[in-house]
Amino acid sequence: MKQYTDLEYLKLSKGQRLLYRILSFLCAIPSKIGGLFGALWRLIKGAGQAVANETRDIWLTFVNGDWKTKLSFLVMGFGNLARGQILRGLLFLLFEVVFIGYMILAGGYWLSMLPSLGKVGPTEEYNMIFDTYVTTYNDNSFKILLYGVLTIFFIIAFIYTWRVNVKQNQMAEKILATGKKLKSGKDDLRSLVDDQFHKTLLSLPLTGIIIFTVLPIVFMVLVAFTNYDGTHDGYYNNLFTWVGLDNFNTMLSWTAGTGSGTQSYAATFGEILSWTLIWAFFATFTNYFLGMFVAMAINKKGINLKKLWRTILVMTIAIPQFISLLYVSKMFAKNGIVNGFLMSMGWIEQALPFWEDPTWARITVIIINIWIGIPYLMLITTGILMNIPQDLYESARIDGANAWQQYTKITLPYMLFVTGPYLLTSFTGNMNNFNVIYLLTGGAPTNPAASSAAGTVGYTDLLITWLFKITTGAESQYYLASVVGILVFVVVAVISLVVYNLLPSIKNEEDFQ
Asked: What is 265-512's CATH number?
């Protein structure tokens, strides 16, 4: 694509400028994706180099260190204890004792069972006392996978702590070589509430993030490589096992199912993904621009009862969506208030298929979402609009700019700069907007071809509501839901990274400072 200079660009008409911007955006996507893979390769290369540097440093520390340092490679904290740093030494030693005890008592078992995810499932044994067969539950695949991953995290934490222990000995030798005194236990405790206080504050949240966020994500990813479902629940029915890439092959396969007119998993996923992206686009930008226009209208000079109009809009936020959306869903049903009113007025002869026809249903949920989202955007944009310097508008009016030109040249650029990151997060949030779709339509109307591929899939189902349906019911295909979750993450990550680098807030940060 030809790149225009600033002078050539100014000579283009408005339509040509718009087309040029769109084409520039589309042409930039491959380079951004290529840059993403390039950055990923540089990250891997840098990580490899860092590991090599750390290995070299550890070896040199052992070779050049004294006997206290060398013994600390085996007994963590020994060097600190020998040099008088009792508190540090005891903490290192205690961690090593706990780690070894855990690995002997439990960790070794969970690691040994991780490759198989269990060997003996539930068995039926005859009980002579009760004269009946009793189910005996043996291995638990779910626990094996969970505690196996937790053990791996514990091992990584131990390796990191061991490395810190080695580094502490290296630093202690250098400090003593200069004739300085090492920090005592009191100095360490004082440091935790002084110059190292940020580490003290962040330690608990960081531990919580690792346990309650990172660990479940890793567990979810690993589930995608198993056959974990309602039949293979890992304990009560049957053990689940590793299946490699079979689930990904199934999801990305274009081979249709056995039923007549049945779609393949890949076709079903593609159809739901395309609708999810369309929904997210309209749900984000209709609310954004209409909310902005409402805020501008209320803020306009000469408008009376501004507080009243804002209060009326905010009331829609105060009502729980669980109530309002279910009520609105009944209003637009075939026998609902809307169809009843239109028929009683003689404007229609038969009920409109708001939830029965795919196109009608999709348009209806987008329109109803406008009613939900405008108040939020009105509140957000009101504060931003008030902060735009009025001198800019006065200068524009003096130069003869009309209202539309003032909006496109002053208001919109300023709003996009400030709210650009919000737009991106809002787009991502709308891709995972479970409440609106599930409470309004439940995914209806049903897609007969797609429903036989994986769960009861509807034309208004988003990927998040499809995930919910996959994991509920008798089959409960958790492995399939995990695969979909990974694919959704890849799609959202690529879109987010590409758009983030194109935001005015990132590209032209200095222009608004």
From this structure: 1.10.3720.10
